[in-house]
Amino acid sequence: MIRQLAGAMTLAVAALAVATAPLRAQDQKGTLVFAVETLSGQTLDPILEGRPGNAVYQAAMYDSLVGFDLQKGGVGPGVAERWELSQDGLTWTFFIRPGQVFHNGDKLTAHDVKFSLERQMGPGSLAAAAASMKRTIKSIEVVDDLTVKVNTVSPQIGLPAALSRAVAPEGAIMPKAYIEKVGEEEFRKKPVGSGPWKFVRNVPGDRIEFTAVAKHWRGTPSFKDLHILLVPEESTRMAMVRTGEAAIASIGPETMLSASRGGLEVLAVPGTMQAVFQFWGSWKPEMKDSPIAKPRVRQALSLAIDRKQVIEHVMNGKARVPYPFSTFGYTDFFSADRWQKWSEEAYRYDPVLAKKMLAEEGYPNGFELKFANTALPGTQFMVDIGTAIADMWTKVGVKVTLKHYEWGSFAPMERGDQAGLIGWASMYRTAGRPDAPWRYNGAFSPDSTQRLLGDKETCPETCQEFEKTYRALLAELDKTKRTALTDRMVEIVANSWTVVPIIEGMGYYAINTKKVGQFEAIPGRHELGDVFERIPRPDQKPWKK
Questions:
Q1: DSSP string of 377-390?
Q2: pLDDT class for 127, splitting at 50, 70, 90?
Q3: Who has the most CB within 10 Å: 186, 447, 480, 522?
């Protein structure tokens, strides 16, 4: 039986945050102003908002069933302080933290948890995971006010992570009695949550305002009010931080240098994503004579990349050499120390060996490679990374045809038969999540969207080995065996050199140190919605010089 308990260190950190933070409302002073590039749907109803909006502003006023490990990232305690899986793997039992209340004074109980999860799966929900929740969750039962059981149709080892703020918004807990009393329309006008910040007003296209609660288990806010402003232009956000109109603003890596030179602090959030390059259709029979069908050729292209140069010159030093594909230091059931050592060796820069391997594979003078350079929303720097690595490949003799795509035109190409991408390499990215299997499934399973190792009709040996390991991983309940299977899954993909990480990226913010004190973000959590309550005033904790 897997028993997922909140770590003692995480609980100690949370307790310390509450114990040392101001506990009286009169000690909360000033307004924390945060300028962000998008407010997404700008709705305060959790069933109508996706990850970015939920993580920026809904996280401030709603608690999630499962939360964060504040120090290393990944899953930690939330509304449920612990959870455990039954012997047969079909029931997760969540034990609710006692003493929680909604902003209207109602107690938060297991009835609210059941109501919230069912509402996420119900009519009118736009939740991205609504369909998968309906497929996998058989029933939800309240045992008592502080205990709720989620029964699944098959073992769902990743369910707590899926209901964690570290992954998705579907675990947000809403007030059952209040919504049933006032109705959905009124709830959306005057939303009520249980988080450290209470809703004040929502001005569409402009801002969302909150006020602090007097005391909260996640951390009691030092500021009295929180204003989240929609400011699409980065230059405007930067100007607001410089003048003190805003305390914090989201920025891109290209702005970090000017922010630092302008006297602002730059905060980097580790483990938020990986920029990768990947090969499309290299397994197809018609590609058997193509250079990219050979793993050693693909490995040589990795050896030709000077990642340290990319980190220094494209990312302004605010990135790191990555772990293998879609894994991070906080990845669940994963031998992080082992793979960090592997990455340091495997992702080294060795152009001499790259040329030697190309020659041994029959390409002493290089070969022609088509490369689609694109960036997923919010990571425009991926285009600069793509341009840089294409230049590095040219230096080992590869003749790169570089074609730039806007994401809107590239995304449809990966669907269907992928005819426009077969034989190409492209830029891509992964998101920072603690559960690796979801991303491996989407990239490599024969019935997935990307199908990078094979499809149902043609599934070569590596594809078959991946599918066998992935299926075994989904069914394994033992923690040690599950870790071994995760490592094996990672190994199969890493040794195929089909998707190759370039850098582990970070989220970036410009900070006016006269407006807020020193704080740290949660690893892997690009957005700051779960950090606002732990941000001190400058008089409480000045930034170190």
A1: TT-THHHHHHHHHH
A2: confident
A3: 522
